Amino acid sequence: MKFTFKRNSRNNPESVKYKERFLLERCNEAIFLLQHKCAQWLEQKTAHLSAKSWIVILFCFIVFTVGGNIYLIVDGLNGNSNKIERSLISRSTNAAAFDTKNKTFNTSLSKTELERMARFQMYMDSLGRSPTGKLIQDSILRSRPGLLDSLVIVENYYRSQFKNQ
Q1: pLDDT tens digits, residue range 120-157?
Q2: Residues 121, 148: contact at Cβ < 8 Å?
Q3: Whole-number Å distance between alpha carbons of 85 and 71
Q4: DSSP result, 105-162
Q5: What single-letter DSSP state applies at residue 95?
Q6: HSE-up of residue 149 (Cα within 13 Å, Cβ side)
């Protein structure tokens, strides 16, 4: 009878969570074991040091650290800009030439395209008003960053062209 009511453990979300938790616990145990072994090794290597030698080591560490920091601060405040090499940016030889003056593009939008953009903006605004719609809106904006900004830019461009005519 057990065979007929056995759950599929591959698709069970609880078993997936259990496996993830088990793996994380094993990783944590391995990290703690590694830390413990490193601490024991360092302790063995420094067991013969006396209190005076520890004070000397600490004093040397502090002197070198403070000295290095003071050097970096003073060197930064001196303003020696000759250390940074500056050169002009040059165009690579195999780059294709792009002449924007000679090329003209057909940038006109039809009324239907402008209406479609306005409807899409209204749709995105309406999605933000409900919790489930907010999730859909966030997923759209995550997959297409800058979409709403592009719509605003195109609409402003169209309106500026309409005013010029």
Answers
A1: 888 888 888 888 888 888 888 888 888 888 888 888 87
A2: yes
A3: 21
A4: ------HHHHHHHHHHHHHHHHHTTSHHHHHHHHHHHHHSTTHHHHHHHHHHHHHHHH
A5: P
A6: 4
Tokens of 109: 């939008």
* C-alpha to C-alpha distance for 119 and 137, rounded to whole angstroms: 15
AA letter at 135: L
Amino acid in the structure at residue 71: Y
Residue 98 has pLDDT above 60, yes or no: no
Cβ-contact 151, 114 below 8 angstroms: no
Give pLDDT tens digits for 54-76: 999 999 999 999 999 999 888 87
This prediction's pTM:
0.33
State the residue for tokens 């090499």.
Answer: 85
